[in-house]
Amino acid sequence: MLLIRSVVFNTAFYANMILRMIVFAPYYFLASRKAAFSVPKGWASSSNWLMGKIVGATFEIEGLENIPEGGCIFTPKHQSVWDTFALMPHYPDPVYILKRELLWIPLFGWYLARQRMIPVNRGARGKVMVEVMKRTKEEMASGRQLIIYPEGTRRSPGAEPDYRYGIARIYRDAKVPVVPVVAHWGLFWGRRKLVKYPGHFKVRILPPIQPGMQPDAFYKHLIETLETASDQLLVETVAANPHLPLPATALKRLAELKAEQKREQTTV
């Protein structure tokens, strides 16, 4: 049954995306950029609805009050295709840093370009960061919210952290608040997994880290903040959804957390 529901969802998900891009194209490309963003936001909301109705996976958001007004940087942990769009309806005017190959996809890439998303050539080095920072400053100066995954790519729930230092440079130069976000989307919609799993989980938007810290201190603080919150939420999510088949990374991390807790109790 899980397989059937997953296949039905995948079919509905992509059909919904393609149909919306075609039907709303005249409005999307003729309206102002910001007004046109209602189209992808509507698609994101409908995709969340499909995930709930077909698969039975739903989420609630804690910490919406932590989203500051104006320009800021969101730094979600990245585990799934789902987390790339699920929170879009709650971002006032988001701009994503994404791999440039996505812009080459017919129609989909045109939609991204219309919203002035920031493409990155992952094969480049120093020069790419200069251009990314230039574009980032331009977009956030107009009050937009930058969405960047500080680990750079999708990671399995509970996997050892692998953060890129580029986020510290962006924080230093952008001079806006950074809002950490954690959730374990990958337990329900895994990376390169056909089967989706039902359940209910929390997305936690943490208090913003204000500008002004030294890059090294910020980098360390961001990692500690995200990883501590992610560990806590992993325990909560698994406890609330005992039916989930857990990846090896999650099982390993849960065992480590249990051992750490036992050591602390022994010490006390």
What does it look like?
This protein is of the alpha/beta class and 268 residues long. It has a single domain, classed as Glycerol-3-phosphate (1)-acyltransferase, CATH 3.40.1130. 48% of the residues lie in helices and 13% in strands. It is built from nine helices and seven strands, in the order ααααβββαβαβαββαα. A seven-stranded mixed β-sheet has the order 1-7-6-2-5-3-4. Strand 3, helix 5 and strand 4 form a beta-alpha-beta unit. Helix 1 packs antiparallel against helix 4 and helix 6 packs parallel to helix 7. The longest helix has 26 residues. It is globular. The mean pLDDT is 92. Its EC number is 2.3.1.51. GO terms for molecular function: 1-acylglycerol-3-phosphate O-acyltransferase activity.
Short description:
By secondary structure, the protein is α/β, with parallel strands linked by helices. Helix content is 48%, strand content 13%. α5 links the parallel β3 and β4.
